[in-house]
């Protein structure tokens, strides 16, 4: 997906099994962020950054939704542990990560595996991507501040 593209209507199931749709955010902008794994240091830091700046983002008209391929049960624990005030989509079938182009081959310590590339999409009121933060641009501990700086 690129700037100017419209994101899919059906985003997936949240931590409670409720279907989350783009139309649920009618009239609002969206921070749709993809992260590799619940309860890892970088992903926890990124989630806390959004948690700590949620009111600042809402003042700018943005809702936050996180996405990973973890299970709903994992998301529930992650939300409780990090006290997250936003939905996490459980994309266990890799449907959304593949549509958004953030699923692919990664490498760690010489081992290759498939995984989610940490990526954030800013989406306008019409569901159109206005900005993309790529993995190399994202600083997990202050990612929400990075977003606020450009708004």
Give a brief rundown of this model.
This protein is of the alpha+beta class and 151 residues long. It has helices at 41-52, 54-59, 72-82, 95-99, 143-150; strands spanning 10-14, 19-21, 29-34, 62-68, 87-90, 103-108, 111-116, 119-123, 129-133. A hairpin with a 4-residue loop joins strand 1 and strand 2 (19-21).
Summarize the structure in words.
The chain is of the alpha+beta class and 151 residues long. The protein has a single domain (10-150), classed as Glutaredoxin, CATH 3.40.30.10. 28% of the residues lie in helices and 31% in strands. The protein contains 5 helices and 9 strands; from the N terminus they run E-E-E-H-H-E-H-E-H-E-E-E-E-H. The strands form 2 sheets. The chain has a 7-stranded mixed β-sheet. The protein has a two-stranded antiparallel ribbon with strand order 6-7. Strand 8 (119-123) and strand 9 (129-133) form a beta hairpin. The two termini are 21 Å apart. The mean pLDDT is 97.
Strand order in the largest sheet: 2-1-5-4-3-8-9
Low-confidence stretches: none
Q: Percent of residues in helical segments?
A: 25-40%
Our measurement of the CA-to-CA distance between the termini, rounded to an integer number of angstroms, reads: 21 Å
> How many helix segments?
5
Structural class: alpha+beta
Rounded mean pLDDT score: 97
Please provide the count of β strands: 9
CATH arch. level architecture: 3-Layer(aba) Sandwich
How would you describe the oligomerization state of the chains in this entry?
single chain
Secondary-structure element order, N to C: EEEHHEHEHEEEEH
């Amino acid at each position: 997906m690129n700037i100017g593209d419209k994101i899919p209507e059906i985003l997936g199931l949240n931590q409670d099994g409720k279907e989350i749709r783009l139309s649920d955010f009618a009239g609002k902008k969206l921070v749709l962020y993809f992260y590799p794994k619940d309860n890892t240091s970088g992903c926890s830091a990124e989630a806390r950054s959004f948690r700590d700046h949620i009111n600042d983002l809402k003042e700018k008209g943005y809702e936050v939704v996180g996405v990973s391929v973890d299970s709903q049960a994992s998301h529930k624990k992650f939300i409780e542990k990090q006290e997250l005030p936003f939905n996490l989509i459980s994309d266990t079938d890799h449907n959304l990560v593949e549509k958004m182009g953030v699923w692919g081959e990664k490498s760690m310590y010489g081992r290759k595996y498939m995984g989610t590339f940490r990526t954030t999409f800013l989406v306008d009121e019409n569901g159109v991507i206005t900005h993309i933060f790529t993995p190399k641009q994202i600083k997990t501990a202050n990612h929400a501040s990075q977003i606020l700086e450009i708004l």
